[in-house]
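Retry 2 of 3 after timeout on previous attempt. Resubmitting structure tokens to design endpoint.
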């Protein structure tokens, strides 16, 4: 027996890799559209809550990037990850501040 009989090759060509990447991008796009539709249809306080949730998820993703960047990345990657975490914290905290809560509770005509 040779090693070829027992090895698993998930992508046999560059064309297979292109299809896999395209599928992942389409999936991410559909999930993003779903989140956008959810945020738009909730209205008022629902948008505020989903903004806090999206900001918290973004902060978690930024922390994961920061861990990988600190482990083996260049300084630019660390800076990018820190900016991602910073924006995530601002997006999470702004709707919970009194001014943000008042803005989402304002009357709409």
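Retry 2 succeeded. Sequence:
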């Amino acid at each position: 027996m040779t090693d070829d009989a027992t090895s698993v090759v998930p992508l046999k060509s560059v064309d297979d890799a292109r299809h896999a990447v395209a599928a992942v991008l389409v999936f991410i796009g559909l999930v993003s559209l779903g989140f956008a539709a959810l945020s738009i249809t909730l209205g008022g306080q629902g948008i505020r809550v989903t903004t806090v949730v999206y900001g918290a998820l973004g902060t978690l993703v930024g922390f994961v990037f920061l861990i990988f960047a600190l482990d083996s990345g260049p300084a630019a990657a660390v800076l990018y990850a820190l900016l991602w975490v910073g924006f995530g914290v601002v997006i999470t905290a702004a709707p919970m501040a009194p001014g943000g809560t008042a803005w989402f509770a304002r009357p709409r005509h």
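Attempt log closed. The helical segments are 3-6, 14-42, 45-72, 75-93, 98-104.
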